[in-house]
Model the fold of this input.
Amino acid sequence: MRAVVWHGRRDVRIETVPDPVIQEPTDAVIRVTSSGLCGSDLHLYEVMAPFMAPGDVLGHEPMGIVEAVGPDITGLQVGDRVVVPFNIACGHCFMCDRGLQSQCETTQVHEHGCGAALFGYTKLYGQVPGGQAELLRVPHADYGPIKVPAGPGDDRFLFLSDGFNVDYQCSRLPHFISHRAFLYQRHIPAIGSSVRTEWTAHPATRHLCFSTVVANRPAFD
Done:
């Protein structure tokens, strides 16, 4: 298959690499139809080079069609259309049970003291081949992939892999910072909405308050 491969600082190439295969009973392999390019990928281009290795396949915002499933997979079948979230989680450990999938105890990279494994994102997060490729092996596919309907274009769903999740998390978890106010706005075609999140620091308590405004339109037109 063809994939985006890291070879060194400021040296990223599209080249042929081996096709992924089922390795564990809970794996799936998808044929990637779209894969986002995240701002975090810029860190790999240079700053995080010490934690990369030549041959690493990049990308952590993919979606596509299921091509193969492991024997323990019951919720997916070949032909399903799925979005694959960037973090790899088991869904049944202490952390996952509490909605803290980014700290999944099953995929956590203890050697480096980091959180759950991520697709295409350095040895700190498991050095798992990423989704800027024609095919992707998805570990713990019994939990992670999100099934989406056929019909609407990929751009209606792709942000569910990373971008929308980050926006939602920011709108739900307040922080304490020096009092400032600013506005972040992103159009989310995945849900057919424009999400605007406002961070306003309360002048008395210095508590950062969030309000999210969603301008709805029909979900799948």
Summary: Confidence is low (pLDDT under 50) at residues 176-221. The first strand starts at residue 2 and ends at 8.
